[in-house]
Design goal:
- This is Prepilin-type N-cleavage/methylation domain protein.
- Keywords: Membrane, Transmembrane, Transmembrane helix.
- It comes from Clostridium botulinum (strain Eklund 17B / Type B).
- The chain is an alpha+beta fold and about 180 residues long.
- It contains one helix and seven strands; from the N terminus they run αβββββββ.
- The chain has one domain.
- Helices cover about 30% and strands about 40% of the residues.
- Strands 1-2-3-4-5-6-7 form a seven-stranded antiparallel beta sheet, with helices on one face.
- A hairpin with a 6-residue loop joins β4 and β5.
């Protein structure tokens, strides 16, 4: 009798194909996963950098007209007060505040910069504006002497596998210091 050749795959051939498919899919998944992590890091760094730039521009503008500065301590400051001059040359006060959001479980705070207009008629001060600059504030550190100050603001954001910290340092001299 004639032997007819059966068409089909042997078990060994099927196992080899499955192993090669799994190896290739594993490499492709790893490439996509690595790419996703890199894109997440870049997105967070970009966000922190743009927030840092707006904070740095605002504090540099305030610092150029600064008269004096008061803070509650040097590390992990919650309130920083800068006595300065506004655009019209009148005295004003800027408060840089670190506020924890209600119901927030993360370790970052919000950074608010408030401008107060000096009220000559009363002893109080009038709030001119209050703006949230970032929700990613980790710490504010200050070192100052009689004529200048250095403010370090540390921004931090944690998302997925990424935990990025971005420090900002602003140095300014009290040009309008009263003797």
């Amino acid at each position: 009798m004639f032997k007819t050749k059966k068409k089909g795959f042997t078990l060994v051939e099927l196992i080899i194909v499955m192993v090669l498919t799994i190896v290739i899919l594993g490499m492709v998944f790893q490439m996509f996963n690595t790419n996703n992590r890199i894109m997440s890091d870049i997105d967070i760094k970009s966000t922190l950098q743009s927030e840092g730039q707006s904070i740095q521009e605002k504090l540099s503008k305030i610092g150029m007209q600064a008269i004096s500065m008061e803070c509650d301590r040097e590390k992990d400051i919650e309130l920083l007060i800068i006595n300065s001059l506004d655009e019209s040359g009148e005295k004003c006060k800027f408060k840089i505040e670190s506020e924890k959001k209600e119901g927030s479980k993360n370790e970052t705070n919000g950074l608010y910069i408030s401008e107060y207009k000096a009220n000559n008629n009363e002893t109080g001060e009038v709030l001119k504006s209050k703006k949230l600059f970032t929700d990613n504030l980790k710490a504010i550190n200050v070192s100052q002497d009689d004529k200048s100050a250095e403010v370090e603001i540390i921004l931090s954001k944690k998302k997925g596998y990424s935990d990025i910290t971005y420090p900002i340092t602003i140095k300014f001299t009290f040009r309008n210091k009263e003797n």
